[in-house]
Amino acid sequence: MKFTDIYFNREKRFSLGIEESSGKFYASFPVRNDMTEYEEYYEIDRAQLDLFQSDLNAALTFVTKCRNRQLDELLIQKPGTRRGEAI
Length: 87
Known about the structure:
Layout: E1 3-9, E2 14-19, E3 24-32, E4 37-44, H1 46-54, H2 56-67, E5 85-86
Antiparallel strand pairs: 1-2, 2-3, 3-4, 3-5
Helix pairs in contact: 1-2
């Protein structure tokens, strides 16, 4: 999988982009477990991508739900047994 960021918000620590091989859009943010830091990627549609780039509050509402593990069904890559916490 090749994830390419289209939009990045450094202050709020999330990005939006496209997974090149599937064409799926995503929202992502960094997570950390006791061994490493990595990104979790949540699938979004084109309308959400467009909205989130222009409406920070809508993006943060979505990302907060993801960070709280309320939208795990949208994970593009399922986490392993040592799943990290959002940072």
